[in-house]
Amino acid sequence: MFNIKYDLNTIDEKRNIIKNKLFENSANIKQVDFTQICNSDLYLLYKLYDEIFFNSWFAENFKGKITFKFSKQLTRAAGNTTTKKHIEKIKPEEVEFQIKISLNHLFNFDKIDRDKYVGGIQAKSKLHSLMLVFEHEICHVIEFLICKKSSCKKEPFKKLIFNLFGQNESTHKLVTSREASFAEYGLVVGNKVTFEFQGKQIIGIINNINKRATVMSQNNKGNYMDRNGQHYIKYYIPLNCLTKI
Ligand SMILES: [Zn+2]
Hints:
This protein is α+β, with helices and mostly antiparallel strands. It has helices spanning about 10-25, 40-50, 55-60, 105, 125-145, 155-165, 175-185; strands at about 65-70, 80-85, 95-100, 115-120, 120, 170-175, 190-195, 200-210, 210-220, 225, 230-240, 245. About 30% of the residues are buried.
């Protein structure tokens, strides 16, 4: 079944069928720009992809387990797939995969007005982007099952995902939290900022930005030290509480 090759029109038609079935069956996804989603939607997506792209191969042949989860921790990667080491030595019924999909990329989708891509395909909506990321991750599962290892940087994966889903790149150009926070607050790593903390005005430098900013503030009592022996206290501060100076 993994020798399937679909042409691009067929792939689009199949994606459309999945989209409509999602609207019918999901409690959250009623339109392409949904505002709520939960892990059960990923299980539904898996069931639909199995039926519509894989002719129910997973339902009929796969004896292991896949768990699906939305993640708030993924910041660069839009998704990831993990399994135990030495999968070739594990009994088929004990094989397990975990697929995580980044929530940040989904909910940042509309924060920036520019074209977004996943796997070389322009993602037209939040739902389209979710489906493209999902396709990438499920290809990792398939490659693990066939080859006992998987790498999206290598040729076999690239061929697999192109044949099944028409994706011709292994990267995405979705909106990261960093890009969104720059657009919303004008803040980037390295900015000098000030904020109020327990009644005091603190000054520091932004060291990292995810949902909140990590700000390092010089202080002789701090536990963090730089190369010059300077001490710092680390703060995690919501972006809307920072003022650039
Ligand atoms: Zn990958």
